[in-house]
Amino acid sequence: MTTTPIPNFDPGALCLEFAYAGSLGLGGRGTESWRAPDDLASWATARFDRVDTSVPGAVASERELVDAILLRDAIAGVALDFVARREPAPDAVDTVNLYAATPDIPPVLAGGRRQAGRTSVRIGQVLSAVARDAVRLFVAANAERVRECAAEDCDLVFFDESRSGNRRWCSMQRCGNREKVRAHRQRARS
User: Fold this and answer.
1) Which of 76, 97, 106, 107 is most exposed by smallest CB count within 10 Å?
2) Of 71 and 184, which is predicted with more confidence?
3) β strands within 40-172, DSSP E
4) What is the tens place of the pLDDT at every residue in 4-13?
5) pTM
6) What residue ranges define each of the domains in the chain, with the CATH number in brackets?
7) DSSP label at 158?
8) 133 vs 187: CA distance, rounded Å
9) Nearby residues of 131 by Cβ (< 8 Å), 6 or more positions away
10) C-alpha closest to that of 77 among 69, 67, 88
11) Residue 45's Cα: distance from chain center in Å?
């Protein structure tokens, strides 16, 4: 089973995509769809081209699934705390920092004859890369750009990566267009 992404929604950061993965809402609000290690492996192989599930150690284990869910919920908690402009929970911060401190995916420059470090990526390295992305996202310089959709009936959280820094909706196709239609109708009535 693979995770179905939220239609027309790009959260703007790998760690936020990870926070939405596996369940139908940030922080696990909804039905869990990461029920087996293969579900996590499918998510990882879709996003990291060097994950090879045919190599022993690259396939997700039950423990790594538990770790992924723990990290996912910690990132979601920190994101929700940032949106609410409150101090993140220390346990969630510790969890993100713990995974960020583990070895992640080494960069590889293509074109050489020797392939030092050119191995398949393991799930633990994927979790580390996601946690490091969360650390980069949640530093003070980016904190103001972690936002919740401005639509009244939407609570999706995203990172505003627009040049002007004024993104208001989770996406124009989902909420932005609906809000603009509502505003237009309101103006037409008055």
Assistant:
1) 107
2) 71
3) 146-148, 157-159
4) 456 667 888 9
5) 0.84
6) 14-106+119-189 (1.10.3300.10)
7) E
8) 42
9) 15, 71, 75, 96, 97, 98, 99, 100, 102
10) 88
11) 15
